[in-house]
Design goal:
Pfam families: HgmA_C, HgmA_N. One of its GO terms (biological process) is L-tyrosine catabolic process. The chain has about 425 residues and is mostly beta strands. Helices cover about 5% and strands about 35% of the residues. The longest helix has 9 residues, at about 355-365. The chain is globular and about 85 Å long. The chain binds 2-(3,6-dihydroxyphenyl)acetic acid and fe (ii) ion. 2-(3,6-dihydroxyphenyl)acetic acid binds near residues 322 and 346.
Length: about 425
């Protein structure tokens, strides 16, 4: 619930849809779930705005090949994939012009699936707004601050913070220089906090630490270009006023941000390695109980105290897809090659795990309590879907590390049947 402080009393009292709204505003509902979704999942907001959203010109398709849902651009590739830091643009590029789809699966028309994008930009969006008709964006900035104007108010999101802009909500991004980051897009359902089970009522990400914007309208009678991603293609329509004209809003469907440093990390205090689901910040559930269409998981700074344990991530084959990125610092399973602004993809059943340097050092490390470096922040998008790489992701991004697979090849045979 939020009112622009310049217009007190702008939220109607006692009802959503008065015959005449305060200050001559228009009432508009934004539905984020079906009208009839169960109460616990139902999401909607009421916006009180200077003009209703419907006053816009005709949408025309934008000619571009960066954003896609064509998962057949490349043949399937079961190899381990690693990207060096994605190169920043050398010309002026704004946030929407700088989004490139790397991989994904499913179809926004069926409301099932996801896409992973990288943004590489350096210029503010001028009289432009974007909304995603296909699903929610979870944005992970790695370089540069995102100053995001949304219909619901302003969100300033820095590296080590994330934000979620749900389906349909218009936003515009101002940048203060070179900017790079990751976007997890989910089609068809929304992000929620994971269940805590035996952890109890406290732990992981606290609901109270999610920050929502305050209504802030602008009254600008100038040409605005409204972009939307609709069924995987980009469209643009012109209108003669700012879409950021919401004076007040109420409801539970709104953008938000979260500072990853607030995460209350839980892990072993005895022995062995917890599965990385213990670090889930947000989850977007599939239809299958307990199985995520996409989890957003972080690897935050923490104490490692496990006794008689190989502490780094175990060697692994997974029925899920694992896409990883690095915001800053390093990652415990890879001594080098996995760099801030880069990424890796370990697809369904593709073996992965610590590189040989990491294996050797962790197998003989002195197991005193150690702090996994302050400032490290790796993350994972984990999905039950098999992901297809795009042409950009596999070829034209020019960031593929062709030597990635070599990092495991000199893992030695240590087996000795005489030595227990
Ligand atoms: O590095 C990875 O692949 C992610 C990962 C981390 C971990 O601690 C355990 C399993 C796992 O897949
Ligand atoms: Fe894994």
């Amino acid at each position: 619930m939020s009112e622009d402080p310049r217009t007190p009393g702008s939220l109607p009292r006692g009802q959503n849809n008065p015959q005449r709204c305060p200050y001559g505003l228009y009432a508009e509902q934004l539905s984020g779930t079906a009208f009839t979704a169960p109460r616990g999942e139902n999401q909607k907001s009421w916006l009180y705005r200077i003009r209703p959203s419907v006053i816009h010109g005709i949408f025309k398709k934008v000619d571009q090949n960066r954003i896609t849902i064509n998962w057949n651009e490349r043949p399937p590739n079961p190899n381990q994939i690693r990207w060096r830091p994605f190169p920043l643009p050398s010309t002026n590029v704004d946030f929407v012009e700088g989004i490139y789809t790397v991989c994904g699966a499913g179809d926004p028309r069926l409301r099932v699936g996801l896409a992973i994008h990288i943004y590489l930009a350096n210029t503010s969006m001028k009289n432009k707004a974007f909304y995603n008709s296909d699903g929610d964006f979870l944005i992970v900035p790695q370089l540069g601050t995102l100053d995001i104007k949304t219909e619901f108010g302003r969100l300033i999101v820095e590296p080590n913070e994330i934000c979620v802009i749900p389906q349909g909500i218009k936003f515009s991004v101002d940048l203060n220089g070179a900017s790079r980051g990751y976007i997890l897009e989910v089609f068809g359902s929304h992000f929620s906090l994971p269940e805590l089970g035996p952890i109890g009522a406290n732990g992981l990400a606290y609901a109270k630490h999610f920050e929502y914007p305050t209504a802030r309208y602008e009254e600008i009678e100038e040409k605005y270009m409204i972009f939307t991603k609709y069924q995987g293609s980009l469209f643009a329509a012109l209108q003669s006023h700012s879409p950021f004209d919401v004076v007040a809003w109420q409801g539970n469907y709104a953008p938000y941000k979260y500072n990853l440093e607030r995460f209350m990390t839980i892990n072993t205090v005895s022995y062995d390695h917890c599965d990385p689901s213990i670090f889930t910040v947000l989850t977007c559930q599939s239809q299958k109980p307990g199985t995520a269409l996409a989890d957003f998981v972080i690897f935050p700074p923490r104490w490692a105290v496990a006794e008689h344990t190989f502490r780094p991530p175990y060697y692994h084959r997974n029925c899920m897809s694992e896409f990883m990125g690095l915001i800053q610092g390093g990652y415990e399973a890879k001594e080098d090659g996995f760099l801030p602004g880069g990424a890796s993809l370990h697809s369904i059943m593709t073996p992965h795990g610590p590189d040989s340097v990491c294996f050797d050092s962790a197998s003989s490390a002195d197991l005193k309590p150690t702090k996994i470096a302050i400032g490290d922040m790796a993350f994972m998008f984990e999905s039950c879907m098999g992901l297809s790489l795009t042409e950009w992701g596999e070829v034209s991004c020019s960031a593929i590390d062709e030597d990635y697979n070599k990092c495991w090849q000199d893992l030695k045979k240590n087996f000795d049947m005489m030595k227990l």
